[in-house]
Design goal:
Elements (H helix, E strand, L loop, with lengths): L5 E12 L6 E12 L3 E5 L6 H8 L7 E6 L2 E2 L5 H11 E5 L10 H11 L4 H14 L15 H13 L5 E5 L7 H16 L3 E5 L11 E6 L2 E7 L28
Parallel strand pairs: 3-8, 3-9, 6-7, 7-8
Antiparallel strand pairs: 1-2, 1-4, 4-5, 9-10
Helix pairs in contact: 3-4, 3-5, 4-5, 5-6
The chain binds adenosine-5'-triphosphate and magnesium ion (MG).
Adenosine-5'-triphosphate binds next to helix 1.
């Protein structure tokens, strides 16, 4: 497999709300090609369409017009149930307000994507537990979400996002509700997930976090204003299974933090 696989291709994506006098556009003729292993940060003023873009990529929302190819499959026109299946398999979501289910213990929150993916109960718990230990949360498996700090809740949410091993992680202001220390911990977790060869698209209002990105896109009024790659496609991290024969050329860090 090539290291420069295209995972997402959006062409002419438009999202329109309302008609006539009330017509407005959250996305306007939006084009975007994402290679596997990119870590894209999306910035831009409130209302410019960042969340709409993530929800469209994450198959939570449908565009009014345009084409969307995900891993070579045209997904714009497919049924909602097929969209849900693809979403469960390929996409992990992280939200600003964590979105944990308050009356489920941590381990069951993390296991949720595996329930949708049809794993046995034993396999769910085993996989959820091993994912939580990666985030040093194994002692809190049976805590309820409200018994955790914001930073811990977001790490649980990240564990939930990656538990089924999706290759695309979408994060909408994941550090927006966190203090700077917890933000740093969360960003280091995302960095580690990225270095394993996963593709991450993250919305942020915090320019200092762009040091983690391989590409920074600024949006304005539903369109791309600026788009800057700081790491070339050849130097993006490769999935672990492809590294056995290929020595990593990328040095540990040219980036800060
Ligand atoms: N259900 C809806 N009905 C009508 N307009 C909507 C709807 N959802 C979003 N919009 C509009 O689409 C535009 C883009 O919204 P979006 O939530 O994508 O912005 P954003 O860039 O994520 O903003 P923020 O930084 O505040 O989160 C906004 O002008 C918003 O008012
Ligand atoms: Mg938003």
């Amino acid at each position: 497999m090539s290291s420069n696989t295209t995972v997402i291709e959006l062409k002419g994506i438009t999202k329109r709300y309302g008609y006539g006098d009330t017509e407005s556009f959250a996305l306007k003729d939006f084009d975007l090609t994402v290679k596997r292993g990119e870590f894209i940060m999306i910035m831009g003023p409130s209302g410019c369409g960042k969340t709409t873009l993530l929800n469209t990529i994450g198959l939570l929302d449908r565009a009014t017009e345009g084409s969307y190819i995900l891993n070579g499959e045209d997904v714009a026109g497919i049924s909602s149930s097929r969209q849900s299946k693809l979403r469960a398999k390929k996409i992990g979501f992280i939200f600003q307000d964590f979105n944990l289910i308050s009356d489920l213990p941590v381990i069951d929150n993390v296991a949720l994507p595996l329930v949708y993916a049809g794993y046995s109960k034993t396999a769910q718990l085993k996989q959820a537990s091993s994912t939580l230990s990666r985030f040093h949360l194994q002692e809190r498996e049976y805590y309820m979400p409200h018994q955790l700090s914001g930073g811990q809740q977001q790490r649980v949410a990240i564990a939930r996002a990656i538990v089924s091993d999706p290759e695309i992680i979408l994060a909408d202001e994941p550090t927006g509700n966190l203090d700077s220390r917890s933000s740093h911990v969360v960003m280091e977790e995302l960095k580690a997930i990225h270095e394993e060869g996963n593709t991450i698209i993250m919305v942020t209002h915090n320019p200092s976090l762009t040091t983690y990105a391989t590409r920074v896109i600024n949006m304005l009024d539903g369109q791309i204003d600026t788009d800057v790659k700081t790491v070339s496609d050849q130097n993006l991290p490769k999935p672990v299974e492809e590294r056995t024969t290929v020595r990593r050329t990328r040095k540990k860090s040219g980036r800060k933090k």
